[in-house]
UDP-GlcNAc:betaGal beta-1,3-N-acetylglucosaminyltransferase-like 1
Amino acid sequence: QYQSPDASKLLTGTSVIMPMYNASCWLDECLQAILHQDFTGTMELSVFDDASTDDSRNVVERWRERLEARAISVVVSGHNSAQPRGVGYAKNKAISQSCGQYFCFQDADDVMLPQRVRLQYEASTLHPNSLIGCKVQRVPEGSTERYTRWINTITQDQLITQVYMSHGPTVVMPTWFCSRNWYLKVGPFDEGGKGVPEDLLFFYQSLRQGGGVARVDQCLLVYRYHEKATTHSVTEETIWKLRVDFLQERVLSQWESFTIWNAGKQGRKLYRSLSPTNQKKVKAFCDVDDNKIQKGFYTYEESKQRPKPKIPVLHYKDASAPFIICIKLDMTGGVLEENLNSLQLKEGMDYYHFN
């Protein structure tokens, strides 16, 4: 349960919110980077240890004196249960013991650049009802290349239009910065534990509440990829269902009819995942594959309707907007992007990406 901090201690500055679980091998680099922030406002580090079995807590304590010498106050707590309670729980606990009016979320295995807190604090004071992100440097270099390119190159408009993509939040959780007031309006984080995408759930809830999304267009975080990252515990099916539901709620509920761009596996899967009401709105599939187009129709075999629904399959040039595009970006050597550009459509009005 969220507890408001003691009003007499409430700061005007920033709390770095750090959930921690078996992070001792990364903590020295992480904490040194917090020490070297060029932010001149009040700063606090709030760490919650989620039942680590290594010496993570000791490592943080070893840094306490140096951090406090730089006027960065340190709050550390945790629990020693047999099992960790999960990232959502640890974030909520770190927040409830903190005092800052702004939150800078920091994963214990990542490294912030010296200007991160200052630049994101400035952006957050201008956009108090937004989640603020930044560009990242991915290490090891070359890991998740397409994902990293997407994080760093989508436009400010696409931070809103591309929220249905399989990549998850358009500003990635390890880069988040927001006001305490906004967290209180949206949160807390889901505490379901392992396998729950607490970041995507919070992100969608923030959008439902009318929140904005913004990005500082500088690289302010070294974002580490490794096999033990909690991201790997979330299944694709869990994410898929959340995205479909959000797409139906935010977009398809506003449209009278639409075309699914991709008559293959992903397009048909999206069709089958829709509510009966939204299935009826699908006027066609479109594609560039002659074999699919020549078949003429996709028949929905699992339908209880009689006769079974038969959806036309058209060439994309013969199909009409709006479209839901179920083809991965950056995978066709630019062909998809060229085809889209040739139709002179507007993203967020005539089409949305869903892959």
